[in-house]
Amino acid sequence: MSKVTIATVAERAGVSRQTVSNVLNTPQVVREETRERVLEAIAALGYRASQAARQMRTGRSRLIAVRIEPARDGINGSVLDRFLHGLTDAAAPAGYRVMLYTATDDTDEIATYENLLTSYDLDAFVLTSTHHGDARTSWLAERGVPFVTFGRPWGAPDTHSWVDVDNAAGTAMATRHLLDTGHRRIGFLGWPPGSGVGDARRDGWASTLAAAGVPGTGLDAATEDGIESGAAAVTDLLASVDALVCASDSLALGALRAARESGRPCTVIGFDDTAVAQAVGLSSVSQPLTQAAARCIDLLAGVLDRSAAPRQLLLEPSLVLRQSAAI
Amino acid sequence: MSKVTIATVAERAGVSRQTVSNVLNTPQVVREETRERVLEAIAALGYRASQAARQMRTGRSRLIAVRIEPARDGINGSVLDRFLHGLTDAAAPAGYRVMLYTATDDTDEIATYENLLTSYDLDAFVLTSTHHGDARTSWLAERGVPFVTFGRPWGAPDTHSWVDVDNAAGTAMATRHLLDTGHRRIGFLGWPPGSGVGDARRDGWASTLAAAGVPGTGLDAATEDGIESGAAAVTDLLASVDALVCASDSLALGALRAARESGRPCTVIGFDDTAVAQAVGLSSVSQPLTQAAARCIDLLAGVLDRSAAPRQLLLEPSLVLRQSAAI
DNA sequence: TTGTAAGCGTTATCAA
DNA sequence: TTGATAACGCTTACAA
């Protein structure tokens, strides 16, 4: 069984090559009966269009690229993993495949764009881990390269399509749950101000307390992400709180440990619902990653036709409650 | 700046298109001086070969495909994640890119091969999660599709190239460590017999005990993977052991929990060194995933030239010791 | 509604 | 050592 091309199909169906192409690309233009004959030939021969030939002609590869990052502290790395799986899954029915690349930083990533675009004719990029002053989005936008971001353009105008999870809603939900279960001294353990995500997560906590008329002033701490740093940062706070909302599962784990060591009971809620949270029974705010990935693909469709205006989607996280028992 | 093709370069260097192609593909055949002039033109114009055109001519895409699996229980999923990152990293310098696909089972995966091969001209596959009676490897082998597996061909002959981690050596290392630190009642918690990986991990434990003349009979338990099931399966065992080697971090976590609840001190060592192990301070056997990925790419080079005979590589895991404190 | 012709950018073949 | 020519398989005009 040698290579089945459009010519093979045409011959078998007794039509010209062009008609076969029309059946594939503009079916409306082909008479019903002819179309059926062609489709039957396609099925019988197991014909599949060559991407390379199609790409050469159209300049589009039906490939989208995503950066795979090293599993940072290993705890939060799994977030990207789940997102990637969702993306690959959602892309396939839309006729797209996902290509991976790595990069050490934004500059390096931009250099990779250049290569990917000129050598592979990549159709679009999906960016994750957006941040303030992100050089990548402006680079892509300037060149008219289609892309969507998972993560809003912190501080920049909404000129492109993006999907994000409502971080503030997540911590608000966690805070509300703590209030509902009778807690009144609810603290927050987060990251230093300046990161959009971190600030939003803090805001969700602060505003919920404010709305409930429960004081929160002085009940927060900030440190870089990590179990150790979280434990250290929260030590003083433990004297004045009986519950803690945290900006990440790593921090939450640190807080749990510090609480256990200090002997002060403290309910802790983390963020991201990572494997670690599942494992140790830590309540955590869960991002709808599969859904986020699917929405990214949806938005990409609009971006690729250049038809639709940029759209932005904010997804609601959910709260996964567990008995914060240690292992 | 419109599209820079081989013709643009040829014109600028004052040579024919073919000479430019020769500089790229068979430099030996081009006179030094000419080659330099061409290379200079390439650099000046920022020329990059079009993959699509090249692929159409050669039939090779410089793309390798890997399946991304859903993050199963979330704990062990990160193993694949790290492997993927290593693979993408190692493939790039070799001139290859990694494409992702998903599949629900082996049959579905084989259907995907068919599509990927005929539509995208994929050059090779990297398979993970090999198992007994793996239909995928025989399908690929029959059709002469280049592939390597991360994981040996359990029960089948070594007719293809693969990389694997010496599972038995990992549990042996863990068992030896326990012996060295004075333990004499060392149990094993693993999976039901029949999975190659699980059996190997059990063997490493059993043979090390046997070699040391320490009895192990009756000190093992088997259950499906998971924290809950691990905890349940190990309950009885806890009366007769003071240390446990486990086939996974999930099982180890279950064992730790059961031990804590029963009040019997028990040293536990897990397998895979996942984020959870790091988080809770669980000692664990660590697989050299980055290295495994790099070796897969190395072996693939041999498979792709059809030059070298199949090669097999067994990598040594390492033992990461932590204070098995709970969080 | 269907067919013809041209060309996308590259490399393999062959001749100069 | 270099250059001309012909594919590779497809789609987009345009003509029938």
Order of helices and strands of chain A: HHHHEHEHEHEEHEHEHEHEHEHEE
Q: What fraction of the residues of chain A are assigned to beta strands by DSSP?
A: 15-25%
Rg estimate of chain A, integer Å: 25 Å
CATH class of the largest domain in chain A: Alpha Beta
Q: Any idea what the CATH superfamily of the largest domain in chain A is called?
A: Response regulator
Biggest sheet of chain A: strands, sense, closure?
Answer: 6 strands, parallel
Please, how many domains of chain A? Answer: 3
| Number of DSSP helical runs of chain A | 13
Q: End-to-end distance of chain A, in Å?
A: 58 Å
CATH architecture of the largest domain in chain A, by name, is 3-Layer(aba) Sandwich
Strand arrangement, major sheet of chain A? 2-1-3-4-5-11
Walk me through this protein's architecture:
Chains A, B: It comes from Phytohabitans aurantiacus. Chains A, B: Pfam families: LacI (PF00356), Peripla_BP_3 (PF13377). Chains A, B: Residues 4-58 form the HTH lacI-type domain. Chains A, B: This is Alanine racemase. Chains A, B: InterPro entries: HTH_LacI, LacI/GalR-like_sensor, Lambda_DNA-bd_dom_sf, Peripla_BP_I. Two copies of one chain form a homodimer. With 327 residues, chain A is of the alpha/beta class. Chain A folds into three domains: 6-49, Orthogonal Bundle (434 Repressor (Amino-terminal Domain)), CATH 1.10.260.40; 63-165 and 289-315, 3-Layer(aba) Sandwich (Rossmann fold), CATH 3.40.50.2300; 167-287, Rossmann fold (3-Layer(aba) Sandwich). Chain A has 13 helices and twelve strands. The first copy, chain A, has helices spanning 6-13, 17-25, 32-45, 51-58, 77-91, 106-120, 135-142, 167-180, 196-212, 227-234, 249-262, 275-280, 289-305; strands at residues 63-67, 97-101, 124-127, 147-150, 162-165, 186-190, 220-222, 243-246, 267-271, 283-286, 312-315, 318-320. Chain A has a six-stranded parallel beta sheet with strand order 2-1-3-4-5-11, with helices on both faces. Chain A has a six-stranded mixed beta sheet with strand order 7-6-8-9-10-12, sandwiched between helices. In chain A, β8 (243-246), α11 and β9 form a beta-alpha-beta unit. Chain A is elongated. The model of chain A has no long low-confidence stretch (mean pLDDT 92). The structure holds a DNA duplex (16 and 16 nucleotides).
